[in-house]
Design a protein that fits this description.
There is one protein chain. The protein is elongated and about 70 Å long. It is built from 16 helices and three strands. The protein is mostly helical. Helices cover 66% and strands 4% of the residues. A hairpin with a 4-residue loop joins strand 2 and strand 3.
Length: 292
């Protein structure tokens, strides 16, 4: 079955490419038809409730799901993944499949969680996939890291340069440095410099979410430098101007601070009458991982 299912997906993908070249079909049409066939097989496996556990057709479910995941990601129909994820999670043998199948499953579920902005779940599943992917499969580990790194950064964990060098992912280096420094200008430059790579991988919009983390890191530095829990808004405006945002004014700065407070990155409030940010005396800048 495994060979037939794999060949079906690969043939459908090749057929789509040929059809598009000839201008006869819309993109993904053959893959959609292949997915319909695979779903039929999936339902047969899922409904096998009579056979003994060791002989059950349910052992074929995860491989079918992984092939369907590959199709649905390619034709951008991620909403179809949820019922299959539930079906696998409800299986009594869900942890007894082969390691390679579990790694593939966790990789795609982690990617879906990332696009759903469920970053802690994404980190859990992508970390599982990366840690258990065979060390000889360096290209696969690199592919997992392309999605794990943005998730880790959004949770406040910046990657080590040695890891980026090992897996040839130095595109993320400038991004991580800019976020750590609280330098929005450098972050924008890093995203623009490598935008083709990030867009191709589908992580550009995820990396743009790092802007709010960058503001948080910059404002934390202002707080540490001033050593007070009552901070003038102008101090934050000056910091932003030093980072290249020359045209920012007090009202825009207050808006950024208000968003940070709303999202939980800063514990405090704005005293509008005195034009000050009053932060909590205890842990005014909670760890990013505790917020998202």
């Amino acid at each position: 079955m495994y060979v037939i299912v794999l060949d079906l997906r690969l043939f459908a993908s090749s057929a789509d490419i040929q059809m598009i070249k000839r201008g006869r079909k819309k993109s993904g049409e053959m893959l959609e038809k292949a997915a319909e066939i695979l779903m039929g097989s999936f339902r047969v496996c899922a409904s096998d409730n009579r056979a003994a556990p060791e002989d059950s057709k349910k052992w074929g479910m995860l491989y079918l799901v992984n092939q369907l995941f590959k199709i649905y990601f390619k034709i951008n129909k991620l909403h179809l993944l949820k019922p299959m994820i539930r079906a696998i999670d409800s299986l009594p043998m869900k942890d007894k499949f082969s390691k390679s199948q579990l790694v593939t499953f966790r990789y795609y579920v982690g990617r879906k969680a990332m696009f759903d902005s469920d970053f802690k779940t994404a980190e859990e599943y992508l970390s599982y996939a990366f840690e258990r992917c065979h060390k000889a499969c360096k290209q696969n580990k690199r592919l997992i890291l392309i999605y794990l790194l943005p998730v880790k950064m959004l949770l406040g964990h910046m990657p080590q340069t040695s890891v980026l060098q090992k897996y040839d992912l130095m595109q993320f280096s400038d991004v991580a440095k800019a976020v750590s420094q609280g330098n929005l200008q450098k972050l924008n430059e890093a995203l623009e410099k490598h935008d083709a790579f990030f867009i191709k991988c589908g992580v550009y919009l995820i990396l743009e979410k790092l802007k709010i983390i960058t503001y948080r890191n910059l404002f934390k530095k202002v707080y540490l430098l001033m050593g007070s829990h009552q901070l003038p808004i102008d101090a934050f405006s000056t910091a932003l101007q030093m980072m290249g945002e020359d045209d920012i004014d007090s009202d825009e700065t207050q808006c950024i601070i208000a968003n940070l407070i709303h999202d939980g990155f800063i514990k405090g409030y704005i005293a509008f009458q005195h034009k000050k940010l009053v932060v909590s005396k205890q842990n005014p800048f909670p760890p990013v991982s505790s917020v998202l």
